[in-house]
Specification:
Immunoglobulin-like; four-stranded antiparallel β-sheet; 1 helix
Length: 141
Amino acid sequence: MYLSIIFSTIFSVFNFFGEKGSPVTWTFETKKVDDHNIELIATASIQKTWVLYSQFTDDNGPIPTSFVVNNIEMKFDEKSKAIKEFDSMFDVEVIKFKEKAIFTKTFTIKKGESLSGYVTYMTCDGEKCLPPTDVTFDLKY
């Protein structure tokens, strides 16, 4: 009986987000800095009751946002205002974003080259968390 309730709940959560989409959507773009450098801008739009975690949140807390570009894991600059507070779900202090998070990184690149990779992120709404998710990108310059 309990097992069927658990599976039903899990299926409902995945079914809801499978149909309606993730509570976090990502866009990726590049901006020319100068003749040899571009800025990669990753923007997360976060639904109202959900949060996205920083790359720099406590190791004992939620899965931090992370970026891999051209097969190299790297840190991006976080341009949005972050909230640092104690999170009772994880029993640690976390750094998180609400509504929008902008991450940037400058790369030296030649015309015709591309930046490809993925962002891994976790999102929670104060009552539940979704499993870490990867979103890929491939941007040609």
